[in-house]
């Protein structure tokens, strides 16, 4: 990923909304390895990626080199990647994309991560909240909310799915906040109302970070802040926080995805810790493709 950081309840639980189970076995498309199905992995010429500065793209290029794959890495955007994925699935064509969870595509499509025996994509990641230096002194109430903010796969998944189904991100966040006031009260515990002070939040336009940022925005507004949000690529997001041009972000993927940015700026930003745990990145294919490992892409 990474540039530019749990209640579905309605019968869609943790595994169905973000489909960590999509990494498992599937019997769908048992004959999909046939040339006639159009899903023969040997016909692939590229990996469909997202923005070029994302950490998952760096890892994907490393995978190409490590496994000796004769594939090009095609940079695009998160939206373009999911559109290409959907088109391929509609035709049962072969495709491999840079993927990550949490992401709504695992709830929409039957997908699986390819095994990574060389460990190029690392283990599970956490999404951290970072602020500029001095925010705790300048805006202590906002800093407390940001420090308290932590949610689960189901919770994030509900907002992401609502947005994917056509709801405006701010409206989806407001709906979730209204329906989960007990959870929000945990984040605002001990926080006093303020009078319109401005707080700026930077984020990368990944579905997970759109959901998180808009929920935090809504909560900060509920305690009296005027909140400005700015979408940008990962490198610019980290730079903006480090240089004090933006106040905070809830979109720092560690230890792998944003590793390089963290190493560059860790002495200029304040890490408030994880707001989400159990994130994952890797190469993803439709379940009907008869391959299970990155090695199978050779």
From TrEMBL:
Position of the signal peptide: 1-21
Membrane in keyword set: yes
Keyword flag Cell inner membrane: no
Keywords assigned by UniProt, alphabetized: Cell membrane, Membrane, Signal, Transport
Source taxon at top rank: Bacteria
Pfam (any one): OpuAC
All residue ranges annotated as the ABC-type glycine betaine transport system substrate-binding domain in the record: 44-178, 198-298
PROSITE patterns to which the protein is assigned, alphabetical: PROKAR_LIPOPROTEIN (PS51257)
Intracellular or extracellular location(s): Cell membrane
PANTHER family: GLYCINE BETAINE/PROLINE BETAINE TRANSPORT SYSTEM PERMEASE PROTEIN PROW, GLYCINE BETAINE_PROLINE BETAINE TRANSPORT SYSTEM PERMEASE PROTEIN PROW
Official protein name in the record: Glycine/betaine ABC transporter
Organism: Alkalicoccobacillus plakortidis
UniProt lineage: Bacteria, Bacillati, Bacillota, Bacilli, Bacillales
């Amino acid at each position: 990923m990474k540039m530019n950081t749990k209640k579905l309840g309605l019968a869609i639980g943790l595994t169905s909304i973000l489909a960590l189970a999509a990494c498992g076995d599937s019997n769908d498309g048992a004959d999909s390895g046939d040339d006639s199905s159009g899903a023969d992995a040997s016909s692939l010429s590229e990996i469909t990626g997202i923005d070029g500065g994302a950490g998952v793209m760096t890892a994907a290029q490393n995978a190409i080199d490590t496994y000796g794959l004769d594939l090009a890495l095609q940079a695009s955007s998160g939206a373009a990647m999911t559109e290409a994925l959907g088109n391929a699935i509609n035709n049962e064509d072969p495709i491999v994309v840079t993927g990550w969870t949490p992401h709504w595509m695992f709830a929409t499509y039957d997908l699986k991560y390819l095994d990574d025996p060389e460990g190029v994509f690392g283990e599970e990641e956490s999404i951290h909240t970072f602020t500029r230096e001095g925010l705790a002194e300048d805006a202590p109430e906002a800093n407390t909310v940001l420090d308290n903010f932590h949610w689960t796969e189901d919770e994030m998944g509900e907002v992401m799915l609502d947005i994917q189904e056509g709801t405006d991100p701010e409206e989806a966040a407001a709906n979730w906040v209204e329906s989960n006031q007990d959870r929000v009260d945990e984040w605002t515990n001990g926080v006093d109302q303020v009078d319109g002070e401005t707080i700026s939040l930077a984020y990368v336009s990944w579905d997970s970070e759109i959901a998180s940022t808009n929920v935090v925005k809504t909560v900060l507004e509920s305690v009296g802040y005027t909140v400005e949000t700015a979408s940008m690529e990962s490198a610019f997001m980290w730079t903006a926080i480090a240089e004090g041009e933006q106040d905070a972000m809830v979109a720092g993927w560690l230890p792998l995805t944003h590793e390089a940015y963290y190493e560059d700026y860790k002495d200029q930003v304040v890490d408030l810790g994880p707001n989400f745990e159990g994130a994952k990145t890797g190469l993803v294919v439709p379940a009907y493709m008869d391959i299970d490992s990155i090695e199978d892409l050779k």
